[in-house]
Every structure is written in C-alpha cells, then in structure tokens.
Protein 1
Amino acid sequence: MGFRIFRQTNSLGATSAACTSQFDLVGEIDLDFPRSSRVQEDVVIWKDEAIKPNHEYIYLVFAYNIFKGASPESNRVRVSWGSLLSPPYQIGLRQDHRALEIFWEMPAHLWTDQEKAEFQGMNIYRRKEGESYGFSPLNPQLLRENRYWDGQVELGQKYFYEVRPVRNFRGTLLEGIGSPEVSGIAKTVLPPAAPTGLVGVFQKDGLVLRWDAHPEPHIAGYDLYRRAEDEKEFRKINPSLLKERYFLDKNVDPKKTYYYRLKAIDSSPDRKESEFSREVEVIPPP
C-alpha cells in the first residue's frame, strides 16, 4: 500500500506552446517502508527537491493497494516556485510567566522591492528535545509583528523554535528559509496566589481542615502550618506536599485552640510558594 506522485513542469517564462501537458512519476511512497517521506499521524509528508525557480508545477497523487491496483487520481495542486525569502535574524527568547515569548528582526534590507511587496507574514514552529518540527505552524494566522507569545507550554519543558517568512509568489504561498533556532524552558516567574477558603473543625478522631480549589492550573500541592494557643511560632505539619484539599490533624489536644494557615506550591522546577492564606482559628467545642 502506498502512493505514487506525478508532476507536470512548466516554465513561467515560456509561451503556452512550449508548456508540456505530460505528467512524470517523481515519487513513490511505500507506507510499510516510507524512506522517501515521513508519516506524521494521518499526514504523509513528501518533499520535492528537484524544482527550480520561475517554474510552475502541477501535482497529482494515486493511491495503490497491496495488489498495486491504483485509485482514481487526487485533486490537482498547482505551485508556482520562485526564490525564497531570507530568514529573520537576531531571533531571541524571553521567559514570561508560564509562557515563552519569541522575537526577531525583519530582514527587509535583504529583500528586493518585489519580495517586500509579496511578503505575507511569518510562521513559527516549535518542537521538543528529540523531535522534528511539525507540518503545521503554531500560529493560526500569518504573523505580521516581529514577536510571538507562546502560552501553551508545560512547565519545566524545554522548547525549540524556528521562524520562517512567507511570500505570495503568483498565488502560491512560499515558506522561506528557517531562522536560526532558539530555545528556552517554560517556568513560572510569579508565585501562585494565596489559597482561600481555609476552615477547620474538631471531630472525633482529630481536627479536619478543608480549603477551596486553587484557580491556577500548575499547582503541585499545599503546605499546612499550625500554631497552638500556647505557642508563638507556626510550624509545618505535613511531612510531604498535600495533594488533596483536606487534611486530618490527629496530633491535637481537644481542649486547646489552634491556628492554621496554608501555602500553595506550584509545579515549576524551583517550586515557588504563595503567600500564606488567611489564618483560621479553630476553637474546641464546649
């Protein structure tokens, strides 16, 4: 099973009489051994490296089954090929709070007047360590500004970025040469907000505390601090980070008043802590 790719070639400077109507086989992809292409999810990516500037190419594809029987032909795709735009330069990266901002300089001084007029915008691509860049850019629309803010990141994950200029050449959007690669690790810059809703009550087997769900998405857990009525300092009472939003404190005297406060801890590598929550006083029942 696989695909056969056919191409018609026409010179953009040629007269109509000089144009050919012949389609030549230029590629074959065996899906069991796709050596001349790569398969990414449900998309087959094939690269034609035998093309020249100032030419028009028309492509069509036939699929074939295990018996080499061919399908009807695909739709035809027409591509006008010209010179590629020079890439942006002085690309940089800035760590923002739970985001990465990529910025660059436009290389307009390297473009001809025609290329400047045909410039449409930039595409930006992202990959992780050990991965290749995907088929589709991060940006849903071409970027006219010289920066991009990427907020869809995992904390602690290293990302690599490449920016490519896009030119409209005779109706074909040509993606230019990629910029130098830039990389950065997503992290939190600001600590999380303080937890809210902390309440406590004595029960038969100890003192139960509960609090509200934290509104921020990257919270790893909580630390709980306690002070008895005859103590001056608060001390942390959980040996490990609390993942749930409740805690049963069994080490209490049912005749004493206790004071509690809470911190939220984020999931960044340096585990940023929030300010303390509002202090809650828990008085023993009469």
Note: The chain has a mean pLDDT of 92.
Protein 2
Amino acid sequence: MSSTSSSVLALSSFNLLFFTQVLTVLSSTIKYNEYATDRGGNVSIPCIAQGNIMWVKEHGSNSTIVQTGRVLVLRNVSTADSGIYVCFASQPRPSTTPVIVASVKPATSTTTSPASKKEEPVQNEQNDSTESPKDSEQEEMAYQAFQRTRLTVRTVPGPVTQLYFKASTILGFLIWRFNKTQSGGYPVRSFTAEFRNVSYSSPPANASFEHVWSRMDPINIAPNVRQMEVYRLAPNTTYEFRIWANNELGSGEVVTTNVTTLPETKEEASLTVLESLVAIGSMQMARRRRKTGRRKKRS
C-alpha cells in the first residue's frame, strides 16, 4: 500500500460498511471505464480526482481498501485481480451528495502517575465540553466516489464441457460443448483433439510406458465445430481422448475422457472378411483387365 495521509488509513470498520451501502447510490453518477490486460502483465489506472485518494475493490459486503494514491498500480496480475475498483477522494464537508465520513482523531500518548490517573476522566470530560464545533469539523474527513473501473484479466481459454465419445466397434464421435464466456478474453482460434490406445493385453514392464498420442484430423479444428468423427478404431479396445481450446495466449485447459469400443460380433466379423475378399477379387480383376489391354495393343 503506498504512503498517503494518515487520515486515509484511519477508516474504521463502520465506515467501510457504510461505504459498501453507498456504492449502489453513487454508481449511477460517477465515471465508469474499463481496463484489460493479459495475465502476468502490469496495469496502471489513474483516478480523475485530486487530493487524498484511496482505491477500494468491490467484494459485495466485504469491500476493502487495496491501495492509496492517485494511480492504482497492479503488477503481475492474475485472475484474482479481476473486478471493479472504486476511486475515492477526500472532500470538504458538508456535501450535497452521498459521501463516506471518516472521523480521524490524532493518537496521543502521555505518561501519568497513579495519582493523576484518577483525575484523567474529569480532564477528558472538560476537554470534550470545551471542544469547539470548528475543531470537530477539522477532524472529520469526507470521501466521495469519483470513478468506477472494471479490470479484466485475459487468460488462455477455459475447459470444454460435456465431453464424451459415442463409440461403435471401429468408429465413433467425439462430442463436446464450449461456453464462450470461457474464451479467456480473446476469441477462440481453434480446438485440438488427440487420442491413444490405453488397452494392454499385459501390464507393461515400464510403469511410465504410454502409447503415443494420435492427433485427430484436422489438426486445427474450427472454433464453431462441436463434434469430430474418428475412424479405424479397434473393437473392444479402450481409448483415451483429450481436447483443448486455443486462443492468442496459447493452449487452454486439457479435458480427457476414456471409452471402450463395442466388441465385434460374429456377423460383423464375417461381413468384414467378405468385404476383404470382395476387395481382393476386384483388385485381381482390375489387374487382368490391364494385362488383356496390353496384349491387344501389342497385337
């Protein structure tokens, strides 16, 4: 917290509570602006007012003073720094607009003997009775809101939601949802999805062994796409899929899901064998036709 007049720092908890109640009244009359910065960056926000300045961050009923001084400086910002900051400046009383009043009384310490301690309450009563209204006004500080600033901290994208894989025996669909409010402050450029086989006939000797990830095609999935088809899977095999969003700052949070493809039935196996035989027969017939064509040309 930067140094400033001690009167600014003498706000009581009662005054802070009163401050939170006055914010809604002042929000329609004070200046409003917005700032945005990337996570890890620095930002400086000047207040339009002059004099003794304090910055308060809104936290509902728990608003707190974060800095004093005309310029609010935040370094190496994180998402926790996002929010609304209100600039308050000291104003002379009385005022026709709602203000925050902070009564500041100078702290005095004196050393007294045991005999003089008994006379102290009487002395205080006399001081209170002789204190002039003018002195009382000088000891009171009034603070008025001048500026309300919303700070947005931009980040990499958040996670996709409702990720699941609808599988058959040898193919399936990877399906997901994405909330645009999770874009991180920049437009989502693309999605990236990968999968790998995580089935083992026997546990690997090396516990750190993992199958290689295969990237789904296209590599950069369009930002408006919400499902991808996957081919050439093996029946009755467990696969792990993962996907993440990308924006200007980089790759977002990775989300994974596991799924096991359906086992192949005898009918499907027979059909697969038949299709393979048909394909082989077609290739052989094509070769014979090419050979016959060559012989005719020679003759």
Note: Confidence is low (pLDDT under 50) at residues 1-28, 99-127, 129-139.
